[in-house]
UniProtKB/TrEMBL annotation:
Source species: Maribacter polysiphoniae
Domain Cobalamin adenosyltransferase-like span(s) in chain numbering: 3-173
Catalytic reactions of this protein: 2 cob(II)alamin + reduced [electron-transfer flavoprotein] + 2 ATP = 2 adenosylcob(III)alamin + 2 triphosphate + oxidized [electron-transfer flavoprotein] + 3 H(+); 2 cob(II)yrinate a,c diamide + reduced [electron-transfer flavoprotein] + 2 ATP = 2 adenosylcob(III)yrinate a,c-diamide + 2 triphosphate + oxidized [electron-transfer flavoprotein] + 3 H(+)
GO BP term, pick one: cobalamin biosynthetic process
Name of the featured protein: Corrinoid adenosyltransferase
Keyword Secreted included in the entry's annotation: no
Pathway: Cofactor biosynthesis; adenosylcobalamin biosynthesis; adenosylcobalamin from cob(II)yrinate a,c-diamide: step 2/7
Pfam families given in the database record: Cob_adeno_trans
Amino acid sequence: MKIYTKTGDKGTTALFGGTRVSKKHIRIDSYGTIDELNAWVGLIRDQEMDTYTKSLLTLIQQKLFTVGAILATDPEKAILKNGKERLNIPKIDASDIELLENEMDIMNESLPPMTHFILPGGHTTVSYCHIARTVCRRAERMATELFEKEPFDENVMSYINRLSDFLFVLARKLSNDLKADEIKWIPEKKG
């Protein structure tokens, strides 16, 4: 199978189901940003850390493929003529969201309380988490715009929102594990 198809040479691409849309369509931006996020999560996973966190990040990457597939599906072609769903994979459900929440709760137990905003950085691995968090927030903004025009499963929106929170807490956990300084943002007082 060839990687290149030449079908996108004129600025269009096919959704899951065959519908062709402009490559600048909000649906393409949405799942493209999820793909970008997945690449950043992979970069985080490639860093030195415990095997449990690596396996959790692998699971998140798999869930991001599911999110991308949901966003890439044309809602008008989501149900086949036989009544079955075109996207025949497990969807994002409440347990996926709860997993992120539970993992954040566990990580937070070992972290000092936050008293100020924290400047991103302190260690390369931590910085990767913060970049992934901001990409996740961008994906959430784009998915929100898409959702307002063409609604999809609300669990997807909740998952993306919770994932950005998870990435923030993971950055704090990795700062702690790596003994990296968390630099607080303390605004200067007007004089």
